[in-house]
């Protein structure tokens, strides 16, 4: 998704949330540095993810934070597990597991939202159903017993990603998972894997490396040197921003909650609806 003027307020809002989360009283100097750097680089950025990465790096350098969302992520994962235990789905029910994965994108660790409110937001999002669901067409394009690379996003929703991967594996597809190598906001990282039991549902676990390689256009070219993938399932807004405007080497299904106007327009849905969009 190409960067636009609409992305600037979102980046700044995420900066304010990050600094509030770290209890930074006087945020002006950090905000000024972020705005100065981004104003110089904005016209050269390929996608909003690059701007967000730059913002977060500057914020961390100024605050000394290394993994500020660790406890929030654990809480979000507990919430996801709780909801799943209370509302399980049949193993073969891939359509509704995709719905859970898309709606789970509503969980946003770090906002200090009360538990009952998060669970209600999640339940409401699931109750809405899918505004767009191209998952059946996607799976028809992936060969039987082929390999799918699943690009993960946030804590909390990863529980529903895991259960979707479990169903896909049960249907015969091989599943590889791609996670962050190091902390980035509330995204799932390599260190989270043991507590999430993701090894139960996948054949291989990959990480992006220290340089957030996903935000470089040649990432999939590098990946293809060691792996061939018959399809990609790509979770969340950040991954959508980075990859939706690139032609990927295999069918790609973007699964997310349309949290901003550009992401809703891309799939032809309304703001804050559940999406499984097949890139064509």
Q: Can you describe this structure?
A:
The chain is 46% helix and 13% strand. The protein is an alpha/beta fold and 280 residues long. The chain has 2 domains: 57 residues; 210 residues, Uncharacterised protein PF01937, DUF89, domain 3 (Rossmann fold, 3-Layer(aba) Sandwich), CATH 3.40.50. The chain has a 7-stranded mixed sheet, with helices on both faces. α5 packs across α6.
Summed up, the domain count is: 2
Structural class: alpha/beta
Mean pLDDT: 89
What's the end-to-end separation, in Å?
14 Å
Computed over alpha carbons, the radius of gyration is 18 Å
Total number of β-strand segments?
7
Produce a short descriptive summary.
The chain has two domains: 7-63; 70-279, Rossmann fold (3-Layer(aba) Sandwich). The protein contains twelve helices and seven strands. The protein has helices at 7-21, 28-41, 48-63, 70-86, 94-103, 115-128, 135-141, 158-170, 193-196, 219-224, 237-243, 261-267; strands at 130-133, 147-151, 174-179, 204-207, 231-235, 252-257, 274-279.
